[in-house]
Amino acid sequence: MEEKQIPQGDSAPKIVPKSTERWMSDSIEKLADALAKAQSEMKGAAKKSTNPFFKSQYADLHTCIEASFPHLTKHGLSIVQGNDVDERGSFYVTTMLLHSSGQWIKSKLKMPITKPDAQGVGATITYARRFALSAMVGISQKDDDAESITNHK
């Protein structure tokens, strides 16, 4: 494993292993071909859910799954998503797009857990899975989640 040195003020540099985690298989031409075919059939995720706080509609995780999985499966593609916490306590959802040939691509999405209870963790997982799935397979969705971080004056 390759290492890099990170300066720590006036002290000696601390050695931190450089990540060698791979994000795709050695080749992805079959996966890319299958994904292009699946994407040509996807119509996007309909806004079927309502955010009661902002009174806005959005495409929830189930709608994103409904909009993509049949087309992915038809072309030998599948999705696997899992959760992880690193040594610093940062929370991640990892999404892998797999092809029946064994080819794959992977993406890790770091998400803050703003409410440290079961409901907060569950909501974070659901949001991250929806965002990561949509990005991985190219599903367009329009929602107003950004409203929560918008500063209205």
Q: Your description of this structure?
A:
There is one protein chain. Helix content is 31%, strand content 29%. The protein has 153 residues and is an alpha+beta fold. The strands form 3 sheets. It has a 3-stranded antiparallel beta sheet with strand order 5-6-7. A two-stranded antiparallel ribbon has the order 1-2.
Features:
about 150 residues, two-stranded antiparallel ribbon, 3 helices, flat
Detail the topology: elements first, then pairings:
Elements: E1 3-8, E2 11-17, H1 29-41, E3 49-51, E4 56-58, H2 61-74, E5 77-85, E6 91-99, E7 104-111, H3 118-137
Antiparallel strand pairs: 1-2, 3-4, 5-6, 6-7
Helix pairs in contact: 1-2, 2-3
The backbone outline, from C-alpha atoms, is flat
Arithmetic mean pLDDT: 83
Number of helices: 3
**Could you name the ranges where pLDDT drops below 50 across 5 or more consecutive residues?**
none
Spatially, the strands of the biggest sheet line up as 5-6-7
By DSSP, the count of extended strands is: 7
Q: Report the biggest beta sheet as strand number plus sense, adding barrel if it closes.
A: 3 strands, antiparallel
Distance between the amino and carboxyl termini: 50 Å
The SSE string, one letter per element, is: EEHEEHEEEH
In percent, how helical is the residue content? 25-40%
Rg, alpha carbons: 19 Å
What share of residues are in beta strands?
25-35%
The class by helix and strand makeup works out as alpha+beta
